[in-house]
Each structure stands twice: as structure tokens, then as C-alpha cells.
Amino acid sequence: MKGLVWWIFAGFVAGIAFGAIFGQSEIAGVKAIDILKPFGDIFLRLLQMLVVPLIFSTLIAGVVSIEPKRVARIGVSTLVLYLITTVIAISLALSLALIIKPGVGMSLAYAKEATVSQPSMVDVLVGIVPKNIVDSMAKGDILPVILFAILFGIAISLVGEKADPVRRFFDSFAEVMYKLVELVLYFAPIGVFALIAYNIGQQGISILIPYGKLIGTEYLALALHALIVYSAVVILSGKGFLNFWRAAKDPAVFAFASRSSSGTLPITMRAADELGIERSIYSFTLPLGATINMDGTAIYCGVCAIFIAYAFGIEITAPMIMIIVLTATLASIGTAGVPSGGLIMLVMIIGAAGLPIEGWGLIAGIDVIMDMGRTCINVVGDLSVTSLIDRFER
């Protein structure tokens, strides 16, 4: 998968070059970019195929991974803190994105075809509860699927040993879905190449300018979240501002380079030791955080969602914002702490907000750049919350 991400990036760059050079060229009377378009469409359909089973399986597997006996005190306080920082992160990202407006001016070719009807805020809240989960799955209604998956996972945990076969089934189901995502992503370099080449060929090279604003907006939001939110958490923990950032430096740098919060766990645990955090606490909160604390990923998804809406000329409404916040917060429970796991979460949010899935292909090519920063923040967030939990338990 690590090498694949660079192939996707290569497809993105090659698509830019092809669209800029051959955008208006014809082969036997047919535009070259029109020949490529079906490859992009196939890739988008493959992504749409994955969304519902991926959300359903990974969220259930994520919820049941939390042992009920340990959820009592430490688990609940950790979960609440992680979700609070995630809500703050996505809110900060959306606010900055609405101010900076990345994506404005792209006027993509698909924009005229993208029709999005936004329900009222009351309808959004009521609609989270499914009348028929099978019907919600068939229609691709993401929020009801997320709620049902979380409740189903909680029920499995409460049943205990009798539900072990079901627990193992969904663990296996989630692993199979991750592998299926991996297989689909092997087609991503071609799909991204086709999508980017088509859009560059249609709109010209000037549509690339908003990408700089997109990356800049994400990194600005990541920096502000770390400096304001995590610093406040660290001060409350009593670990010392400079001591914390000195200890967090190694896991942050490793996470930035490896783009895997799960792979960084041993280094993060060593940093927790340096900060004097009890082993019994960080051995629970850090692995949990690698699964459900995705502040950096939430920032990434929020900025990208607004970018896609502006790029396709879609009106951004209050219900859409609410859906993005809810989906980013709930979906973080099941997002894998692996390189480019945020791409999976972004698919969920695009589907829930009613944004065009074509937008995913526009983001995938530069994901390797955006992934480094968000993974770094994910890991620092795990360590900061763990520091505060340690303070609570003393």
C-alpha cells in the first residue's frame, strides 16, 4: 500500500500533464480525454460499491474492540475526550475552509451534473434513526447505517461470550473489506489519471490553483488545532508544556514519515513512559486512540468536503455542515490507523453529505501530502488526551 500511494500520486501528475498537453487532441474524431472518461467512471463506481459494507463492518469491529469491563471509567472518559477533540477539530476545519474557500474557481465539468438536495436540520436528526436498515443500506443513507452499526457493536459487547462468533465474524468482515479496498485502490492510479486528465482537458491548467489553497488550509487547521486545543489539554494535565512537546516530538516525526498512527504506537508508548504516565492507562488509551481519535483526519475530511462542494459549484448549507460534523465524528470510531485510512473516511463523508463521488478522485492524487500532516496530529492527540486521563486517575 505504501508504494501504491506514490503510484496514485504519479497518476495524478501524469493526468495533469496529459490533460494539459492532449486535452483538445482527437483520435479518429474522438477527443483523447473522452476515451479516458470511462476509466474514471469505472473507478468511481468501484468506490461507491465499497461505501456501505465498509462502514458497516469497520464500525462494528471498532466498537466491539473496546472491552466492556474497561469501558466503565477510563473507557468512557477517554471516549468522551476523544470525541470532543474530534468535534472541535472538524468545526475548526470547516470554519477555516469556509473563510479561505479552497476549490472556488475550479468550475469542474461534472458540476452541472451534480445535483444535491439538502434536507432541513430536523430531518437530518430524525433521519439518523433508520426505519429499515436494509432500505437505508440500499439507498446509501450513510448516517442511519453508522448509527445502526454502533448500536449493533454495543449490543455484541453487552451480550458477552455468547456473541463471540458474531464478534469474530465482523472482525473478519472488516479485514476482508480492507483487503477489498486495497484491491480497488490498485486501479486508483488509472482511475485518478483518467479523472484528472479529463478535468484538466475540459477546464485548463488553471484549475490547479485551488489545490495549493486546499493543502494550505489543511495544514493551517492542523497547526492551530495542535497549538490551541492540544496545548490546553496538556496544561490541564499538568505534564508541562515544554516537557510534553519534547516527548511528543519523536512519535510526531515518525507518524509524519510513516503516515500510520497504529504503526507509531510503540514510539508513542515510549513517549508516554517519558511523561510518567501509568502503563495501565496508556496501554489502553493509546491503542484505543489509534482507532477512534482521528482529529487530523477529521480536519482533512472537513476541508476536503468544502473543497469538493466549492469545486463543483454546490451550495453549502447548514444541514450539510451538520451532516459532515456528525459523520466525521461517528466515522472516526472505525477508521483504520493505517496509511491513507483517511481516504476511506472521506468516502463515507462524501456519501453522507450528498457530494459527488468524483471529488474523491480529485483528492486521492495529493493524499500522500495531506496524509503526513493529519497522521502526525492524530498521534499527538492520542498522547495529549492520555496525559489528561492520567491526571484524572491520580
Blueprint (SSEs and pairs):
Elements: H1 2-22, E1 26-27, E2 30-31, H2 32-64, H3 68-100, H4 121-127, H5 133-139, H6 142-159, H7 164-185, H8 188-203, H9 209-237, H10 241-258, H11 265-274, H12 279-292, H13 295-311, H14 318-331, H15 341-353, H16 358-364, H17 367-393
Helix pairs in contact: 1-8, 2-6, 2-7, 2-8, 2-15, 3-9, 3-12, 3-13, 3-14, 3-17, 6-14, 8-16, 9-13, 9-17, 10-11, 10-17, 11-12, 11-17, 12-17, 13-14, 13-15, 13-16, 13-17, 14-15
Verbal overview:
By secondary structure, the chain is mainly α. The protein has a single domain (2-393), classed as Proton glutamate symport protein. Helices cover 78% and strands 1% of the residues. The protein is built from 17 helices and two strands. Strands 1-2 form a two-stranded antiparallel ribbon. A hairpin with a 2-residue loop joins strand 1 and strand 2. The longest helix has 33 residues, at 32-64.
Rounded to the nearest angstrom, the distance between the terminal CA atoms is 42 Å
CATH class: Mainly Alpha
Helix content: over 70%
The residue ranges in which pLDDT falls below 50 over 5 or more consecutive positions are 111-117
User: How many β-strand runs?
Assistant: 2
Q: State the helix count.
A: 17
CATH overall fold name: Proton glutamate symport protein
Q: What do the pLDDT scores average to? A: 81
Radius of gyration: 21 Å
Provide the CATH architecture. Orthogonal Bundle
**Order of helix and strand elements from N to C terminus:** HEEHHHHHHHHHHHHHHHH
Main sheet: strands, sense, barrel: 2 strands, antiparallel
Total individual domains? 1
Strands side by side in the biggest sheet: 1-2
Share of β-strand residues: under 5%
- The 3D shape can be described as globular
Output the structural class. Answer: mainly alpha
